[in-house]
Design brief:
The complex is a heterodimer.
Chain A: E1 4-13, E2 18-27, E3 30-35, E4 45-48, E5 53-56, E6 58-63, H1 76-85, E7 88-93, H2 104-117, E8 121-126, H3 140-146, E9 150-152, H4 161-171, E10 178-180, H5 185-188, E11 193-194, H6 197-202, E12 206-207, H7 209-226, E13 230-232, H8 238-249, E14 254-258, H9 286-298, E15 303-304, H10 313-316, H11 333-342, H12 349-363, E16 379-389, E17 408-418, E18 421-425, H13 426-431
Parallel strand pairs in A: 1-4, 1-5, 6-7, 7-8, 8-9, 9-10, 10-13, 11-12, 13-14, 14-15
Antiparallel strand pairs in A: 1-2, 2-3, 5-16, 16-17, 17-18
Helix pairs in contact in A: 1-2, 2-3, 4-7, 7-8, 8-9
Chain B: H1 17-31, E1 48-53, H2 59-70, E2 74-79, H3 91-100, E3 105-110, H4 115-120, E4 126-132, H5 138-152, E5 159-163, H6 170-181, E6 185-189, E7 205-207, H7 210-216, E8 219-222, H8 228-231, H9 238-245, H10 249-252, E9 260-262, H11 275-278, H12 285-303, H13 311-314
Parallel strand pairs in B: 1-2, 1-3, 3-4, 5-6, 5-8, 6-7, 8-9
Classes of the chains: A alpha/beta, B alpha/beta.
């Protein structure tokens, strides 16, 4: 493997509080050195990044890659390439595939497909329950043995409080978090949009904020009861932020994520019945966005995750009630975060990178998220000054369902390196 | 060519007060077409209209069809049963196929909120919303407004209370927009389980007791209670609904003034409304049906490019191209 020397960049490594002009040398798939004026080893490729930001590769704890079962909308390979193009060096694939990733063979399949893709790393998340049916606990030991980094029944909540309790207790043996999709199924049944003024106006069935908060409160109580690690997926309400804040003050082991869209859009995006604004949890209100941003800044919400959810064009081209939930996000996450959070002064750039790399890696105990010498050579070079327009035809993802289409963003990966190997190079992509 | 209302009529939320008044004013001269021995004028001669009904409807479909025929349009009815819709054809494909046959207008009724707007954004023909899910039913609200205007001479300042299942009602939403835009005071009354949370923010007063609504209002618009709502647990029983929220003769008798009674139909007699009220002296329920044809003629005429000031004359001539 050829060594790679990245020169002339602004190196931001939140794991060490580093933000300075420096070179980064990658050797043998690892970070070899970070410093000013590093010499060029023999045979190394030298790349002058010309003032761009060099950071640990971004890490996404929540993506849906649809393989196996729905390979026409995404595969592990296309999802991994989309991730790499978005600056991610590692993503965690949710198990709501078809069949469900609830056994060691299924987890092993994802690991193998990921290795074959030779792009961003794809870490499998196993199911909490067999078939995600919410009845019988899946074999966490075997899932972890095969490579799972967490368990979740995402796509749906763990309905039974007893099962959630058991999962949190049982997961302790393996040191993995239980990631929950927080939604009270009886309150949310049939809902397609946030319950509020917009739902009243559009005549669509709403999902109240309480639907999320009830399960967040339950999960926090169960985490306290069991001492297990709970990870709360895609938080969307101000009430949830408050609940987590209080739980953290009490020392409960909880981590929480929020999506770029819940940080930047409200239910008003659904006006005109735009199915690209239909997601679960639904886009909420301005006050929720404000609270989520504050929570993210303060560390109540730990990190940003894309909840990348590809869907076929035809599925979204229909009535709002009939369209599936979810949007793609891997290729817009950093741009949206940088444009709407950093440029608007909510977070500093190092804070954004910390919440998209260092903190998520730590939450699921993944390698990466750092440029510490000796760490895995997972690095991203980010252009944080050139505006670009979101063009879905340029997506690496097989799907196009994004509410950010046509938006001009600032902030984009120009080079993504995984284990010392370049997996995405914007210049090469341009030349192609 | 259709500047006065735009291309489509999707709902009253997007219309200006002037546009709503224009439709009502245009409906006036069309009223007497239906009173003539020969109920036909050539205003839409040569225009083709498809009535695309994805949901059962008797009153609205027949009303539109009469309006179209009395304007001399050529019409085709498509119902979801027995058409390719049943075979899984998507809404947009159905519409594009119809358009490929060079139709001028589509009247659509669909169980999904937003279906009419979806269609309007994807085809060039004019689209008229004949009811989309729980969203809007603009021609119903327009005929309600026309009926109120006939009765009271004006809408501004009227107190109108919509009684019943507002949550699931497109009629209620369209009425709320139309009434507010024309300066009426609007209240809703019903069990809280059947009122949208936060509806006050639309500028609507919430009245919990139907007795209080009767004291307050000049007119009640009583909505149909669908029996599915009970099965879905929104109300405990039809019996209790009638006892607590039913518009009964005994309750109406306590009104401080003659209380005008409206109902968009079809009625559940003895569920949301007492027959003695529905058939009573202050009921305008059948006048609503009559006005429905005139209002729909006005909407069709205006969307087809008819000049409002020529509506009277149009009774004798085709719309000029």
């Amino acid at each position: 493997m050829r060594s790679l020397l990245l020169t002339g960049g602004r190196v931001i490594d939140p794991s060490r509080g580093l933000d300075q002009r420096a070179d980064v040398l990658l050797q043998d798939g690892k970070v070899a050195a970070v410093g000013v004026g590093l010499g060029t080893p023999d045979g190394a490729e030298v790349r002058d990044v010309g003032g761009a930001v060099v950071a640990p590769g971004l890490v996404d704890l929540h993506v849906h890659l649809r393989e196996p079962g729905n390979e026409d909308v995404e595969t592990i390979a296309s999802g991994a390439r989309a991730a790499a193009a978005g600056g991610f060096t590692a993503v965690c694939a949710m198990p709501n595939t078809d069949p469900v990733t609830d056994n060691q063979a299924a987890v092993g399949f994802i690991v193998r497909q990921s290795l074959r893709a030779r792009s961003a790393r794809v870490y499998p998340i196993g199911a909490v329950s067999v078939g995600q049916k919410g009845e019988q606990l899946a074999e966490f030991g075997e899932l972890v043995g095969a490579g799972a980094v967490a368990v979740s029944d995402d796509g749906r909540p763990v309905k039974s409080s007893h099962l959630m309790r058991t999962a949190l207790e049982y997961a302790r043996t393996f040191g993995i978090p239980v990631a929950d999709h927080c939604e009270d199924p009886t309150l949310a049944a049939g809902g397609v949009i946030h319950e509020g003024l917009v739902s009243a106006r559009l005549g669509l069935k709403g999902i109240p904020a309480a639907s999320e908060e009830i399960i967040v409160a339950r999960d926090l109580l169960l985490a306290e009861l069991t001492g297990g690690r709970v990870h709360l997926c895609h938080m969307s309400t101000r009430g949830a932020v408050e609940l987590i804040r209080r739980a953290k003050e009490r020392g409960i082991a909880v981590t929480a994520e929020v999506t770029p869209h819940h940080l930047t859009l409200t239910d008003r995006a659904c006006e005109g019945y735009d199915t690209h604004a239909k997601m679960n949890p639904p886009l909420r209100e301005e006050a929720d966005v404000t609270a989520l941003r504050a929570g993210l800044k303060e560390g109540v919400i730990d990190c940003i995750a894309s909840d990348h959810a590809p869907h076929a064009y035809d599925a979204k081209e229909g009535a709002f009630d009939d369209a599936p939930f979810g949007i793609v996000g891997l290729e817009t996450a950093f741009g949206v975060g940088h444009t709407l959070l950093v440029q608007e002064g909510v977070l500093t750039l190092p804070q954004l990178i910390e919440r998209m790399s260092t903190i998520p890696a730590r939450a699921f105990r993944l390698s990466g998220g750092t440029l510490q010498p000796g760490a895995m050579g997972d690095v991203v070079v980010l252009d944080v000054s050139t505006p670009w327009t979101v063009d879905p035809t340029a997506f690496r993802s097989k799907s196009r369902n994004s509410p950010f289409v046509g938006r001009t963003l600032v902030g984009r990966a120009v080079l993504t390196v995984v284990g010392g190997e370049t997996v995405y190079d914007a210049e090469a992509a341009q030349a192609r | 060519m259709t500047a006065v209302l735009g291309k489509d009529l999707i709902g009253l939320a997007s219309l200006t007060p002037e546009q709503i008044r224009l439709i009502l004013d245009t409906a006036e001269p069309f009223k007497d077409v239906s009173e003539r021995p020969i109920k036909k004028v050539p205003a839409l001669r040569g225009k083709t209209i498809v009535n695309l009904f994805f949901e059962a409807s008797t009153r609205t479909r027949i009303s539109f069809e009469f309006a179209e025929k009395r304007l001399s349009a050529d019409t085709v009815n498509v119902a979801s049963t027995g058409s390719s819709v049943q075979k899984g054809e998507t809404l947009v494909d159905t519409a594009r196929n119809l358009e490929a046959m060079r139709i001028d207008m589509v009247v659509i009724r669909h169980p999904s909120s937003g279906a009419a707007e979806f269609l309007g954004n994807r085809i060039r023909s004019n689209v008229i919303n004949a009811g989309d899910g729980k969203h809007e039913h603009p021609t119903q609200a327009l005929l309600d407004l026309l009926t109120l205007r006939d009765k009271f001479g004006k809408i501004a300042g009227l107190k109108v209370c919509i009684v019943g299942d507002v949550l699931h009602s497109r009629v209620a939403r369209s009425n709320i927009w139309g009434l507010i835009k024309l300066g009426a005071e609007v209240a809703v009354c019903g069990p809280r389980t059947l009122l949208p949370r936060g509806i006050e923010q639309l500028g609507v007063r919430v009245i919990d007791h139907v007795e209080d609504a009767i004291q307050w209002a000049d007119a009640l618009n009583v909505l149909r209670l669908q029996l599915e709502r009970m099965e879905a647990g929104f109300i405990p029983s039809v019996r209790e609904y009638y006892r607590v929220f039913g518009v009964t003769a005994e309750r109406v008798a306590k009104a401080p003034r003659a209380l005008t009674i409206m109902h968009p139909g079809p009625m559940n007699r003895g569920v949301e409304i007492d027959s003695r009220v529905a058939d009573g002296p202050h009921s305008v329920i059948l006048a609503q049906v009559t006005n429905g044809v005139a209002v729909r003629m006005a909407v069709l005429y205006l969307l087809a490019g008819g000049k409002p000031e020529l509506a009277d004359a149009a009774k004798g001539a085709a719309v000029p191209d």
